[in-house]
Description:
It is a single chain. By secondary structure, this protein is an alpha+beta fold. It has helices at residues 37-47, 107-114, 130-148, 174-177, 187-202, 230-239, 260-263, 333-358, and strands at 4-5, 10-15, 21-27, 65-66, 70-71, 74-75, 80-85, 151-159, 162-163, 209-216, 244-249, 268-270, 273-275, 284-285, 288-289, 294-300, 310-313, 319-322. Strand 1 (4-5) and strand 2 (10-15) form a beta hairpin.
Amino acid sequence: MASTFGTIFTVATFGESHGKGVGAIVDGCPARLSLSEADIQPQLDRRRPGQNNLTTPRDESDKVSILSGVEQGVTLGSPIGLFVPNRDSRPSDYGNMRNVPRPSHADYTYQMKYGVRAGSGGGRSSARETIGRVAAGAIAEKLLRVVYGVEIVAWVSAVGDVETTGVDAHTVTRAQVDETLVRCAHAPVADRMIAAIREAKDANDSIGGVVSCVCRGVPAGWGEPVFDKLEAKLAQAMLSLPATKGFEIGSGFAGTRLRGSQHNDPYVMQGERLGSPTNRSGGVQGGLSSGEPIVFRVAFKPPATIGVAQSTVDFDGKDVVLEAKGRHDPCVVPRAIPIVEAMAALVLADAALLQLRHGVIQ
Length: 362
């Protein structure tokens, strides 16, 4: 079940980066949810390659087709099939790398696990696999928005050593995020981030970054105790993404430098419920949502495939100098925004349906 995620609201993705196409099967979506390709395509458009000169020049429209599970504009309660064809694949770009495992890529580890691997692109380890996640996440997001009023917004908070703290998680919108090419939502810092990405690209190199995300309107009590805590499921979801190397929620690692008297979130009355103005816990207490915005950050490493000459060895152990070919992002975080949002939506939709299964008496 390595390609399946979720307990009740599940998604299984399929396809390779240079095969005929990629997609997903969504199961467990409730019936009678209004749904069409138009609900899914906007997030795929934000993820697709070739958007601007900060991304890979691979030219894919990434148009999604709903193959099953929807009739007359509503979900049937049966599995929803989603498919996106690959139109601009170039497996020939990878001919010189077929016998050379790219440094810090998954070529070597996939070969060791299966004894075979997709020789063109990264196969299942390619970021193109995330198309299925984004399509499925758009369905989960609509369910959350229509039924619960949940809103999910992610933005780029760091590129290399260029960081911003000028984005308000309580008010930031996707429209504001999309105002800059780098999806920063803080224009003065965004310009510096763009410059850092272009500098890396001009040097045939790459650069990493951080994506922040907020989930607003999540009711208190979602999540499962002990092993399936909400932050644990979010961490699993985010660290399952290509190129991720870190996850933190709320105060994260910075909170370790505080005392409990500084870090605790005192309660106050907010309307008819208890709330916390400080929210250093990031919207999760004891593994369950607290009703405050869920705020977390995901670290993405510099993309591994670069054009800079690297001394390495091939699968036979012979010394080689690799200058990787192909079309790759110099920095993944601008296109990672809808992917992070999708995985957050999948976790929360599953948590919502699990809460219904418990039959909690209010």
